[in-house]
Model the fold of this input.
Amino acid sequence: MPAPRTDLWLIATLMTFALLSAASIASAEGVYNLTGLPTYPNLRTAKMDGVARTDTLGHWCTRFAAETFDPLDVVEAWYRKVLVGASETDLNHDERYKNYIKLSGIKLALGIDSVTVFRTANQSTTTIELFRCSPPR
Done:
């Protein structure tokens, strides 16, 4: 039985992002950033999720997560510079991050795609998460 058209579209979209962003590599461990969103240049660790997941609005999202020893304000400034036109939200006002204690950070959104940069009081590293999402089915 052939795959539904929407499944083929999702696969084609994810493959396109993978091919277009093959040059975006997390230098820390050679992990490929398949989101197509900019990769911070000074990473300590990085991991690309193996599968796309749906969010509460039905978007299929891929996630690239990384850490750096660079200070939070330096990483935030870098992403503000490279994501021109992104809307900014304090993560203390984002439902997904409500359970973090003493959280500092921002979410920069470009449409349905986003970048979060944060640190908690007991963290020695800054966390970076890149989310590339598709429209809901």
